[in-house]
Amino acid sequence: MIAVLYGVLILTGVIIGVTGLSDIVLYNIVDERLRIVKQQLAIKIKDPEQLNRAVEELKQEFIRAYDLDKPWYARIPRVIYQIMILDLGTSRSTLSFSGSNKVADIILERLPNTVLMVTTAVLISSLVGLVVGLWSASKVGSFLDRSTSLISAISYSLPTWWFGMVVILIFAYELRLFPSGGMTTPGLTTTDPITRFLDLLWHLFLPVLTLFVALVGSWIYVTRSIVISITKEDFIVVGRAKGLPERVIRNRYLLRNSAPPILTNMVLGLAGSITGAILTEAIFNWPGMGSLYYNAILSADINMILALTYIYTLVYVIARFILEILYVVLDPRVRY
Amino acid sequence: MSLLGVKNLKIYYFTLKGVVRAVDDVSFNVREGEVLGIAGESGSGKSTLGYGLMRLVPPPGRIVGGNIVVSGKDITSMDEGTLRREVRWKVISMIFQGALNALNPVYTIGKQLVEPIIFHENVGLKEAYERAVEMVRLVGLNEDVLRRYPHELSGGMKQRVMIAMALILRPKLVIADEPTTALDVVIQAQIMNLFKKIKKEFNQSIIFITHDLSLIAEIADNVAVMYAGKIIEYGTSDNVFNIPKHPYTQGLLKSIPRLKSKEKLSWIPGTPPDLRNPPTGCRFHPRCPYVMDVCRREEPPIKDLGGSHLVACWLY
Amino acid sequence: MRKLLRNELLSIFLSSNTSKVGITFLAIMIIASAYVVIFMPLDFGLRYWNNPTFWADYPKLVPPEWVNIFLGGKLLRHTILVAEKPTLSLEGVKQYILTYSHDSNQLPQTVVFKLNNITFTYTSIIELSVRRPDGRVINLLVIQPLTSGVSERVDLSGRLEVAVALSRFLKDEFNVSISTTEIIQRKLEFKILMGTPVASNGYVDFKTLRGNYMFNIFLRSDDPTARIGSVEVVVFGWCYGFMGTDHLGRDLSQALLYGFPVALLIGVVTSVITATIGALAGVVSGYYGGIVDEVIQRLCDILNNIPLLPLLIFFMFVIRMNEELRRTISPLAVIIIVLVVFSWAGIAIIVRSMVLSIKAQQFIEASIAVGASSIRVMFRHILPQVAPFIFAQMMFLTPSAILSEAALSLLGLSDPSIPTWGQILESAFANQAMYLGLWWWIIPPGLLIMYSAITFVFIAQGLEPIVEPRLRRV
C-alpha cells in the first residue's frame, strides 16, 4: 500500500518535473521567501546596493537549497519532498478566510466543508441504499426488485453536476425554496448557533440532495446483488436446517457475511464521492476543496492545482488502505 | 417401531419453463436403528426428497401432496415455528453434500457447533462447549479444531465437523445427502467407517442418499432405488443387490466395474428423462431392454414380491 | 464450462427488455451520427460554432419555438425579411420596401437592417425609415457609405442617431418628452418604434401597436449603377429553432446534434482500446505467471489506487499549460489516452483471475500436450471464453468515458474546437443559466449525456445473464 502511495507521488513528481511546472513552483517558493527575507534585511541594511547584493547571495543559496541549479531530473526528489510536506508556496489567486495565501492554509480551511457535504450525502444514501437493497433482496422478483436495475442504470448514467444544475433550476429558480449556492447566507449577522445551524442545513439541502440521487441508485443495486449472492450460498440452507430462528439467520449468516463487501463499497464510495464532488461543489459554489480546485483551474493557479491533486490522491489511497484493514478485520478468510 | 413414515409424497418445482415433478408419489418407512439407502442417478429426485423431509425445499419448489410423519407427528402440516423449534435438528438433522460451503465462513467451528445447542436447549455456554468437544472427539478430530475457521480445514475434516454438528443434538434421524461425493477415495473410506461406527454405537437411524451403489452396499439395511421421481425398487440390501428385479437396478449393478471380472462393462443407454414432461406409462420404458406395450401406456403399480421386496414393473 | 452457441447467446441477450431498449437507443445514436457526418461539415466547431459573427443574426438566449404551443403563441417569432430587387425604382432613388406583420404584444429583442454589398461609382446615401400601421413614419437613420463593395449592418438598439430620431418622433407626434440618453439607457427603442404612448399616473407607458410595419430603405444616388446587392431586415424574436439559442445566439440544436458522433467516438474508442489492452494484459499475466505476472500485477495495483478525475484534470491542465504539447496533440486524444491508461488495470485484474481458472482446466493441458504454441492456446482457447466478459466491460466503460469527457468540458479542459454536450453545459454554467431560468440550455445537453450513457448501460445489463454464470463459476 505504501508502495502505491510512493508510486503515485513519484509519478506525479516526474510528470511535473518533465513539463517544467515544478520549476515555476519552486521559483515561486524561492521568490516568496526572498521577499520576506528582503523585508527583514531592509531594516538592517540601509544601503540599497549592499541590500541587493545580500539578497542576491541569499537567492543563490536558496537556489542551491531547492536544487534549482541541478538538471531537471535531479530536481524531482526535491519536488516530491515539497509536495509531501505540503510546502507548496502560495496561491496566486485565492485567499483563505483568514487572509493567508499559503496553499496549505487555504486547503486546510476548505477541507472540512467538503467532508461535511460528502459525508452527509454518503451516509444518507448508503443508509437508504442498504435498507432498500436488503428489502428488495428479500422480495426477489417483485416490482421494486426489478426496478432496482433501472434505478441503478439511471444513477450510473446521471452526471451528478448536471443534476445539480437542474436542481438549482427547479428549486432555487422556479420554486424559490432553497438558496442557489454557497454555504451560508451572506450578511447573516446573528450569532445564535441554532439559527446558524439551520441556515447551514438550508444551504446543505440541495447539494446533498444532488449527491444522494446520484449515489443511491448504485447503492441499492450493489447491496441487493451482494445479499442475493450470499443468500444462494449453502451455509444459509444449513442454518435453516439447524432450526435457528430467522432473526439469527439474518444477522449471523446473511448480514455478517454481506458486511465485508458492503463496507468495502461504502469506503470506496466515500473516497470516490470526494473526488466526484469536485464539479458538484463548483456548481453549488460550496466553499470546499472542489470549488477551490475549479477556481484554481480557471485561473491557472499551479501551486493550488498541484497541491489539490496530491491531496485528492492521498485521500483516495488512504481510503483504500482503510479498506484493506477493514477487510482483514471482518473476513477471517483473508487473514493468512 | 416406525420412526419415519412417508406416504404419497409429492414435491414439485414450479419453474418458468414448466412444472418439474421431482418427487412424484413416494412412500416408504424407516424404523428406529435402521439405515435406509436411497440410490439413484442425478436428477432422480433423491436430494429433493432429502430436503423435503425437513421441509427445506428451496423455492420455486413445494411439497404439493402426501405427508411425512415422524415419531407420530405429522410434519407436513406443522407450522413453521414449531417445526423450527421442535423438529429441525432436534429430531431430524442433515449432513450436506460438499461441505465446502456448508459452514459459515465467518465464525469458528466451535461457535457453529454450539449454536444449535444454545438455541434448542436450555443449556449454559460452558456445558454446550463441553458437548461440542465430546462430539468432535467422537468423529476423530482434535479438540482444538473448535478454535479454527472453516477455510482452515481440509475437505475430510470439514465433513467430519458436519457429521459432528448433525449429531450434536442426538436427533432420531440423520439424513446424509451425498456425504462423500466431494472427497477422495481414502477420505471416503474413513468417513464411511465413521458412519458405521455411529450406526453401531448410537443405533442411529440414517437415510443415506447417494448415487454410489457400493457405499449403500456397505452401510444400508434397506435400499430404495429412485428413478425419475419415483421409487422403482425397494428391499433389504441383500435382496436388492443379489437379486435385483427392476431392469434399471439390474442395469445399474451391471455397470459397476468389478476387479476380477472379465466381463465387458455395460451401461444403460439413453439419458434420464426431463421431469417436466416425463414419459407416459412407466418412466423407464424408453431405456428398458424388456419394454412391452403396456409399459408405454400405464404406470406399473408397486408389487410385493415377498420378504418386503417391492418392485414397480410390469414384468411382475 | 459449456460453450454456448452463438444463437443461444443472441437469444438470451435479446430476451430481456433492457437490452432491446439499449439496442434501439444505440441505433438512434448511430443514425443521428450518420446524419451529422453526412450533412454537417467536419470543422463545424471551428468554422461555425466558435465563430460568433456567424450567429450575429440569431436571437440570443431564447427558448425553442415549440414552447409557443404551451404558451399560446405569446413568444414573438424570429423573422427575416429579404429583398433582392428594389420595390420601386425611380430617377435617383431606389426604394426597397420590406413589410413586416406584427401580431404579438411582445416587442422584438432588436431589429437589424442589413445592406449587403453596396456598390456605387459615386456618392450615394441610404435612408432607413419605417412606416407604422398607424400611418406614422419615422426616419430612423441616414448612412453615407464611403467605399463601394462593403456591407452595412445597422442594429437599431443602442444606436445614437436612431435614439435621437425616436425622441424627436415622440415629441412631434405625441408630445411626449423622453431624452435620447434615457431611451438608450432604458432600452425604450422598440417600445417607441412599435408602440403608442399611454399616460398613466403621470408616468409614460407604451401600448404595443400591432399591424403591418413597412421598413423602407431608400438608396438615393445620381449614379444609375448604384445598387445594394440584397437588403434584409431581421426582427429578432423571442424564440427560435428546435432547441433555442445560447448567449451568442448559437442554435443549440446544431451543437446538440453534432455531439452525437463525438460522444460515440470518445466512448467507443476509449472502451475498445481499454478493453483490448486490459484483456491482453490479463491474459498474458494469467497465462505466463512468474515475473511477468508480478510486474503487471504491481502496475495494476498502483493504477487501481489512483483516483481518475483529479489526475485526468491534472494531465489536461498540464497539456494546456505546455505550449509545444498543446500544438502537437489534440486534447481529445489526450483525454482518450489518459482514460485508457487509468482504466485498463481494472479489467486486467479480473481477466487474469478468469484466465487462471480456465488455465487449470484440462482442455488447456491437453492442447499444450498436443503441442499447441502458447499464442495459439491463448487466442483460440482462452480468449473466446473471456470474450463475453470483456465485451460486457466495454459496455460499462463507454458511459464512463462519455461522462468523464463531459466533466472535463465543464472545467474547460476539453477540446474547444469540437463542441460537445459537456461544453454546451460549460457555457451555460459560465453564463449563469440556472439562475436565469434558461432551462433549454441546461436540460437537453444533460439529458443527451444521460441518454448516451444509459444506452450502453442497458446493453451491458442485457449481457449480464450471459456473463454471470461464467463469472460465478470462475
Features:
heterotrimer; A: mainly alpha; 12 helices; elongated; B: 316 residues; alpha/beta; Rossmann fold; 8-stranded mixed β-sheet; 4-stranded antiparallel β-sheet; 12 strands
Topology, element by element:
The complex is a heterotrimer of chains A (336), B (316) and C (474).
Chain A: H1 2-18, H2 21-44, H3 48-65, H4 72-84, H5 103-138, H6 143-157, H7 160-174, H8 193-231, H9 234-241, H10 246-284, H11 289-298, H12 302-330
Chain B: E1 2-15, E2 18-31, E3 35-39, H1 46-53, E4 61-70, E5 73-74, H2 80-87, E6 92-95, H3 109-120, H4 125-138, H5 155-167, E7 173-177, H6 185-202, E8 205-210, H7 213-219, E9 222-227, E10 230-236, H8 237-242, H9 247-254, H10 293-297, E11 303-304, E12 310-311
Parallel strand pairs in B: 3-8, 3-9, 6-7, 7-8
Antiparallel strand pairs in B: 1-2, 1-4, 4-5, 9-10, 10-12, 11-12
Chain C: H1 6-15, H2 17-39, H3 44-49, H4 67-71, E1 79-83, E2 88-90, E3 93-102, E4 111-119, E5 124-131, E6 137-143, E7 150-155, H5 160-174, H6 180-185, H7 189-193, E8 195-200, E9 203-208, E10 211-221, E11 227-235, H8 252-288, H9 290-304, H10 308-321, H11 323-328, H12 331-359, H13 362-370, H14 374-410, H15 421-430, H16 439-473
Antiparallel strand pairs in C: 1-11, 2-3, 3-10, 4-7, 4-11, 5-6, 5-10, 8-9
Helix pairs in contact in C: 1-16, 2-8, 2-16, 8-9, 8-12, 8-14, 8-16, 9-12, 10-12, 12-14, 14-15, 14-16, 15-16
Explain what you see.
The complex is a heterotrimer of chains A (336), B (316) and C (474). Chain A is mainly alpha-helical and 336 residues long. Chain A has twelve helices and no strands. With 316 residues, chain B is α/β, with parallel strands linked by helices. Chain B folds into two domains: 231 residues, P-loop containing nucleotide triphosphate hydrolases (Rossmann fold, 3-Layer(aba) Sandwich), CATH 3.40.50; 71 residues, no CATH class. Helices cover 31% and strands 24% of the residues of chain B. In chain B, the strands form two sheets. Chain B has an eight-stranded mixed sheet, sandwiched between helices. In chain B, strands 2-1-4-5 form a four-stranded antiparallel sheet, with helices on one face. In chain B, helix 3 crosses helix 4 and helix 4 crosses helix 5. In chain C, strands 2-3-10-5-6 form a five-stranded antiparallel sheet. Chain C folds into two domains: 274 residues, MetI-like (MetI-like fold, Orthogonal Bundle); 157 residues, Jelly Rolls (Sandwich). With 474 residues, chain C is an alpha+beta fold. Chain C is elongated, with a radius of gyration of 32 Å. In chain C, a hairpin with a 2-residue loop joins strand 2 and strand 3. Helices cover 55% and strands 17% of the residues of chain C. Classes of the chains: A mainly alpha (336), B alpha/beta (316), C alpha+beta (474). Chains in contact: A-B, A-C.
